[in-house]
Amino acid sequence: MTTDRLMxxxxxxxxxxxxxxxxxxxxxxxxxPRTAAALMAGAMVASLARAGSVLALAGAxxxxxxxxxxxxxxxxxxxxxxxxxxAGPRLLAASRATSAAGRDAVGSPAVVVPLLGxxxxxxxxxxxxxxxxxxxxxxxxxxxxxxxxxAVLVTWRAMxxxxxxxxxxxxxxxxxxxxxxxxxxxxxTTAGATTPGAALGAATPExxxxGAATPExxxxGAATPGGGVxxxxxxxxxxxxxxxxxxxxxxxxxxxxSAQTSxxxxxxGRPVTDFRGPSEPAPGGTVRRFTLTARTATVTLSxxxxxxxxxxxxxxxxxxxxxxxxxxxxxxxxxxxxxxxxTLHWHGYDVPSGEDGVPGLTQEAVRPGGExxxxxxxxxxxxxxxxxxxxxxxxxRMGLYGMFVVAxxxxxxxxxxLTLPVHTFAGTTVAGDHDQPILQGVxxxxxxxxxxxxxxxxxxxxxxxxxxxxxVAVDGTDLxxxxxxxxxxxxxxxxxxxxxxxxxxxxxxxxxxxxRTEVVRLTATANGTGHVxxxxxxxxxxxxxxxxxxxxxxxxxxGDAAAAAGWPELDLTRYxxxxxxxxxxxxxxxxxxxxxxxxxxxxxxxxxxxAHTINGRAYPHVPTQVVREGDLVRLTVVNRxxxxxxxxxxxxxxxxLARDGRAPTGSPLxxxxxxxxxxxxxxxxxxxxxxxxxxxxCHNLSHADLGMMLHLAYEGVTTPFHxxxxx
Length: 727
Ligand code: C2O
Ligand code: CU
Hints:
Elements: H1 3-29, H2 33-58, H3 66-86, H4 88-96, H5 100-104, H6 109-132, H7 138-159, H8 166-194, H9 196-199, H10 210-213, H11 215-223, H12 233-238, H13 244-247, H14 262-266, E1 270-271, E2 287-300, E3 306-312, E4 318-324, E5 328-335, E6 345-347, E7 371-377, E8 382-387, H15 392-398, E9 401-407, E10 416-425, E11 428-431, E12 438-442, E13 447-454, E14 460-465, E15 470-474, E16 477-478, E17 489-492, E18 497-503, E19 509-513, E20 517-524, H16 561-565, E21 591-603, E22 608-614, E23 625-627, E24 632-639, E25 645-649, E26 654-659, E27 670-671, E28 673-676, E29 681-687, E30 693-698, H17 701-705, E31 709-714, E32 717-718
Parallel strand pairs: 1-32, 2-5, 4-9, 10-13, 12-20, 21-24, 23-31
Antiparallel strand pairs: 2-3, 5-7, 6-8, 8-9, 10-11, 13-18, 14-17, 14-19, 15-16, 15-18, 19-20, 21-22, 24-29, 25-28, 25-30, 26-27, 26-29, 30-31
Helix pairs in contact: 1-2, 1-6, 2-3, 2-4, 3-6, 6-7, 7-8
Copper (II) ion (CU) binds at residues 612, 643, 645, 698, 700, 703, 708.
């Protein structure tokens, strides 16, 4: 069974156990001994089953059961035993009783209270999973226990005129609740003062070093002055909170709250604003200048439908930015009237940190009337996109994004090359500015490249019918040995890109999104020029001469949308052929970080929110991951929630080491956005070769907005900005 299913099963069993125990208590109170006995038997079975489901789930990793094993299960089992021992015999006697009085004895507090108490204890499990999530900490566990104990006392008192030791029990319960509250909230507020959001926002730049943001990390760094390869234990010391699962320990909120040492205070810092692009292109390259003006506008989609949008230059998507490898890209961003402010982030492009467009971290957001000039070398080739990073959840949704494509130097310029940013406007799937299929005539034999970008918050499933094709690049990086594909569903994560290549066959080719929306329909025409319907300027032409697909015997029917809906999803980790990589899962890692993604109550930017949490915290209270230039970093991302989290690290491409413990068997996967689905565990690695301050976040931007972000900071890099935002 998949971890996702096990999580659902465990939840179901825990709810059943709670309902059965509470039901038994209610039936007893209603003086229905037989019903109560039957429900109690069911409750005991469900409680045992819960132990089994937790055990099974533990096989997927400690992260998935930590709060269950340490709190929920002991509580459930203890309460179940107490109820069985105290209420059980009386309940059985009552259900066998022949006299009415004997049957009515079942309604006594000695029966009802233990049964209802077991119900409260059982209910604490799902409540803890929903409200608190990972990890269970002593403070929240105490509060939970106090709530259960309080409910038992209230029930008992309501049923009986005298409760033995009521005062002492009440006092103990209140004390537990208070202690829990202190443990939970005091560290959270003090930690706030040293976590990046606050520390980077400190008025004095010296105090704002990234090292200061996470004192342990800087200390660990100081303890290993050689900066050499750290043992497995040392990286955990570098980020104890973030890496707690690897140690099987708890994420103690207090860890982040320790005081800054003088060494960190005096560490020479280099401001992130020093990390800027060059002023000259590479030899042979040219300077590509663009100006983008952000403004609100009413945009007319291809059908004539009008939508209110936030735009670059009045259009959605914004003007395509294209370059050839080695060019210098210079983009002047202006803001006409986006009152929230705007920046440009080059998604997937490893620009210098000062060009990364993260408001409050690498620059201030550009306010109306302001401007900012981005300059960087077009070193990577492939398909990327740009978008605002200020209030990005709303900004990107409203249209502040565009395509960024870099062609290899000296590539041929024949063929058809379509960039297709897929976005949802008011419930309609739009490709470019098309809310209807893009129709284009293409001469058979023409090389075609389709660049798919998911600019939404959730994944899209694409199918390409009518031809055999190859998925030649993912997130801008060419795959190794991509084989011919047909009858496949391609699930593209939010923020991700797929490049599809094929040779135009003699019949029509149809690209669909989510099995219902026709995105592109190519029809075979006699002459090669064809007709492009639409305003979306094609990206740089790119010919994939190696593509010999179009094998007529395996061509799918372009017209059959229903069939396409049934095509199985391509498993990227098994596609293509292996190739050497600069590091593998057996490499020696200088740092290891684990991010456990969940939902729960957490302190957000000032107020407690029902957050999308990372190791139980929400931005800006998630401890910064601190690395040194040159470090080989291993990042484990665990999803124990019910939402998909497209994980995105700025400034670095990551190499996938494993998903759910299995290494890719196909092409190496270099990604900037990977979908961590419920129950999945991803292990990725990257070389810290791009010094600066970087966002590391979920690219479901509404999740990011609800706390699912943190910073990755290179030791010694500081920010002169307030540091509290990030998009
Ligand atoms: Cu595409 Cu931080 O984002
Ligand atoms: Cu998410």
